Inverse folding.
């Protein structure tokens, strides 16, 4: 089959590139013909070579939404795929324009968050999500919550659509580097540095652990608006030897940091937004076999089941206790190969082919 993925912006600014590159590369390795519509910039050229070397890049220039949409329509008509996969419902990715796509091409829309639950532009997103259901026969949801939500929406509108639950996964280039000399307890946290993503909770938990673990290391990977405030906090508390704010870390450096981890942390909040989303970092952590500290809600529990280390949402004291226990048990427990393998992009791609055939 021939697949075309529609993306936006730069890799580092658009998390759903992980789906396009991950599924696309896996489909190509399985023998399918795959193209990805990619904005032409230095970052994307480097990332395509690293993450999807067996996919054809269809480059488009940065321009206004309508101009970008027209370039993607031309790409569709020239490439003639069997399936067009949109990683977001936006004008740039041909939202409201499905009637312009040649007849017979299957269209897939991905939902990775429930944007209609965010206060900003709530009604606008509610309308867009509904129109997306009408415009696409194939609906892919990155979380169980989203699958259930859109199943109810389709029932409300009497729509018959193909619906699939498919969370994120890990790329093949992420694998543990053997380090028998690892003795320093190390927490790894990777996320965009926004207040709502839990970075301050993780720093506070590390502070509470330091009296009993003076050599504890916390590696914070990711950029965002809170980076400077975090740096000031670390310097003000005099914990620069223990807490390291690395900023955005290139994918080819992740193995180095992840292989040092005693434990990974993926904070969640008991909100509809967090129940609906699928934290992609969870799957990046899995291949390393170390404890993942998170909350017993949404997709983390769906993915890890009894293998996860769970704390009560928004309870820093419980997070601290759970991290301490996970560090203590980090050399005693690991994930079975069957659990890790089921969350590879190859596994996701095989399911996706069955979904659209």
């Amino acid at each position: 089959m021939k697949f075309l993925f529609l993306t936006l912006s730069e890799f580092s600014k658009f998390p759903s590139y992980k789906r396009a590159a991950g599924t696309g590369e896996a489909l190509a390795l399985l023998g399918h013909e795959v193209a990805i519509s990619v904005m032409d910039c230095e970052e994307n050229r480097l990332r395509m070579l690293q993450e999807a070397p067996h996919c054809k890049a269809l480059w488009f220039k940065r321009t206004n939404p309508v101009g970008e949409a027209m370039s993607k329509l031309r790409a569709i008509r020239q490439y003639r795929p069997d399936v067009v996969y949109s990683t977001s419902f936006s004008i740039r990715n041909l939202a409201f324009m499905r009637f312009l796509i040649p007849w017979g091409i299957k269209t897939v829309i991905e939902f990775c968050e429930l944007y209609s639950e965010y206060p900003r532009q709530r009604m606008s997103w509610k309308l867009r999500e509904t129109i997306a259901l009408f415009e696409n026969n194939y609906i892919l949801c990155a979380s169980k919550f989203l699958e259930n939500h859109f199943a109810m929406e389709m029932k409300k509108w009497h729509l018959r659509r193909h619906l699939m639950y498919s969370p994120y996964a890990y790329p093949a280039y992420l694998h543990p580097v053997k380090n028998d000399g690892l003795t320093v307890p190390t927490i790894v946290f990777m996320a965009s540095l926004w207040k709502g993503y839990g970075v301050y909770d993780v720093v506070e938990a590390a502070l509470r652990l330091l009296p009993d673990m003076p050599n504890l290391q916390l590696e914070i990977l990711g950029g965002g608006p809170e980076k400077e405030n975090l740096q000031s906090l670390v310097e003000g508390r005099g914990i620069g030897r223990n807490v390291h704010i690395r900023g955005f870390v290139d994918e080819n450096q992740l193995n180095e940091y992840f292989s040092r981890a005693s434990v990974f942390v993926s904070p969640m909040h008991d909100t509809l937004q967090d129940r609906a989303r699928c934290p992609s970092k969870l799957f990046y952590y899995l291949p390393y076999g170390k404890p993942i500290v998170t909350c017993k809600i949404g997709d983390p529990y769906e993915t890890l089941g009894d293998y996860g280390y769970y704390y009560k949402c928004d309870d820093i004291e419980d997070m601290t206790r759970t991290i301490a226990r996970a560090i203590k048990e980090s050399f005693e427990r690991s994930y079975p190969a069957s659990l890790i393998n089921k969350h590879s992009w190859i596994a996701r791609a095989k399911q996706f082919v069955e979904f659209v055939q």
Q: What stands out?
A: The chain has two domains: 2-166, 186-340. The chain has a mean pLDDT of 91. The CA atoms of residues 37 and 58 lie 5 Å apart. The longest helix spans residues 65-79.
